[in-house]
Write a structure and sequence with these properties.
Elements: H1 8-12, H2 17-21, H3 25-36, H4 52-65, H5 90-108, H6 126-131, H7 134-154, H8 167-178, H9 186-190, E1 194-199, E2 203-214, E3 220-230, E4 233-236, H10 240-249, E5 252-253, H11 255-270, E6 274-283, H12 284-287, E7 298-305, H13 306-309, H14 311-321
Parallel strand pairs: 2-5
Antiparallel strand pairs: 1-4, 2-3, 3-6, 6-7
Helix pairs in contact: 7-8, 10-11
This protein binds zinc ion.
């Protein structure tokens, strides 16, 4: 899939366990860099290397596929250090515990999924759009229509010809639909559908169709998302998982963040033993322009909790969704 030579640019942009499982150690060092690096999957700068270096790199990558999974997260956790606490007071102990707790939670999720005002990771204009009245909605639409008309003029079209007359309005409405996720929040979606079942086996919803918009080019990227979790007794209504995916997909996104946001949302709302999300998708900005790699797939994954700690659990998930081939 993503590990054919054709797809190297896609595979490299995934900051994920998928790479790790294929055993390319060098990738892990760039993991953090790739997260920070602003994503540019279009301009050919990140296209496959050519020449003898490329051939060498390709050989290396191929041979690594057959090797067992190596992932820095698989290393056994170091034995807890004996802290010199004989001289610590109760206060410093408390502080240390709080700091540890903070560090732990900060790696789990960078921001709370349900904010104090009930919006889930809102953007600047989210509240305004959510609470606008009829007049404000009209104003927004008029503004958008004007912008689309300008676009039509700028590409050299005649916005007054018959076929294009209603296009600005249609496009504005479509755009609002593509980004309707800004007006939704996780609390309303879940709506109490969490059940104490005493079930502690892996639950997977796979092949969830996802349609999102690349925030760099404002063109779609589409694909499939697979969400798995291991409950800590509580299970979530199965249909809620695709709806959470939909909510975050219907915003301006990059695939890496979309994957992470869905995983974090499930983690926060359900508090399971672990969550794993894998997304494979095709980016129109890459397929239709730029490097024009029409068959490439970009795979991203985010694993939290027991999926992050246990290779066996992660592999079970990957083989069930059919990625770990
Ligand atoms: Zn793009």
């Amino acid at each position: 899939m993503a590990h054919t030579p054709d797809t190297s640019s896609g595979a490299e942009s995934s900051s994920t366990a998928v790479n790790g499982l294929k055993g390319d150690k060098r990738k892990h060092k760039s993991r953090d860099l790739s997260k920070k690096r602003s994503r540019d999957h279009g301009d050919g700068k990140n296209a496959e290397p050519s020449g003898p270096d490329a051939a060498h790199a390709m050989r290396e990558r191929r041979s690594s596929i057959s090797k067992p999974a190596r992932d820095f997260r698989d290393k056994p956790e170091p034995a807890p250090k004996k802290k010199k606490r004989k001289i610590s007071t109760a206060d410093t102990l408390k502080e240390e515990a709080a700091a540890e707790e903070a560090a732990e939670s900060s790696t789990r999720s960078p921001s709370p999924v349900i904010d104090f005002d009930g919006l889930s990771r809102p953007s600047v204009g989210t509240r305004a759009r959510l609470e606008e009245d009829e007049a404000q909605r009209e104003l927004r639409l008029t503004k958008m229509k004007g912008a689309v008309r300008t676009l039509l003029e700028c590409i050299g079209e005649d916005p007054d010809r018959e076929g294009l007359l209603a296009t600005p309005e249609r496009y504005a409405k479509a755009m609002l639909y593509f980004t309707k996720g800004y007006q939704e929040n996780v609390r309303d979606i879940v709506n109490g559908a969490i059940f104490q079942e005493g079930h502690n086996e892996m639950v997977i919803v796979k092949d969830i169709e996802v349609f999102s918009m690349c925030e760099h080019h404002l063109v779609p990227f589409t694909g499939k998302m697979h969400i798995g979790y291991i409950p800590a007794n509580a299970v979530i209504g199965i249909s809620k998982l695709p709806r959470i995916a939909e909510m975050f997909a219907r915003r301006l996104q990059i695939q890496e963040r979309l994957t992470k946001e869905v995983a974090n949302a499930v983690m926060e709302v359900l508090q399971p033993q672990g969550v794993a999300v894998v997304m494979e998708s095709s980016h129109l900005c890459m397929v239709m322009r730029g490097v024009q790699k029409t068959s490439s797939t970009t795979i991203t994954s985010c694993v939290l909790g027991c999926f992050e700690r246990k290779e066996k659990t992660r592999n079970e998930f990957l083989s069930l969704i059919g990625v770990n081939r």
